């Protein structure tokens, strides 16, 4: 792709605007921990790397990311200073398979599905997608992955068939289910599955360049891919987003209101609140994957939920502006 720049990371100062207190607190927490401009790359504390592995969920498998996290955790007992972590953006490649699979292990909650095939689709599309790593990391661990897959292009893949069946199964609202059937059926060629998974405490300053890069690549692909068929596959009209939220345990009993000033919903990722506000329709469902987060006390009155949102591609420019407003100056 002739217009595609070399991928790199950025460090951006930010101010906070009118989003939920939890979204603001997550952004401010990392800001206060000293993400500063060091060769245009942010600093992250050693303990953050230890607590943020596995995207906030338990991992029972053995992998390089887990070994790195365990090492950081044990080292933190003797070292309390900051460790500079220079995050770098890369095109996905086959050697990232294990790291990306670890990040996506609870993408569809606790469903046993063709996750390996799904990872292969992401890694097989290097022109649109990014993985984030730490520069000169011997373990070559993956700390974030973003991509956009055309569901129509891969409609016959086992993993995509299982993903669509799963979403239709967990959607209990019949009106929304009809819209979902239409989206993944007759309109499937127009749908981009927006995949975004990362470790919990990845500096929020990385989010604007990460999403900007993804949506720029989608736009470039509509002209730069080698065939008209491939170019057309990136002309999305809708983005389908699968994420997680936390819902207050007493919200349903109190008519959607919660006492003691607690929020009814908490978004796991700050950008999801923006996607939700821009979505044409959405639905949530109970999540069963066991959670491990850095905010366990704050979330003790909440239950994890899956969240599915559909956002028109025409709203992405607004999303990009609002994300910058949340993270940047």
From TrEMBL:
InterPro entries per the UniProt record, alphabetical: BCP1_family
One Pfam family of this chain: BCCIP
Stretch list, region Disordered: 1-77
Biased composition (Basic residues): 1-16
Domain of life: Eukaryota
Record's compositionally biased regions (Polar residues): 48-58
Similarity remark: Belongs to the BCP1 family.
Name of the protein in question: Protein BCCIP homolog
UniProt source species: Salvia divinorum
Species classification: Eukaryota, Viridiplantae, Streptophyta, Embryophyta, Tracheophyta
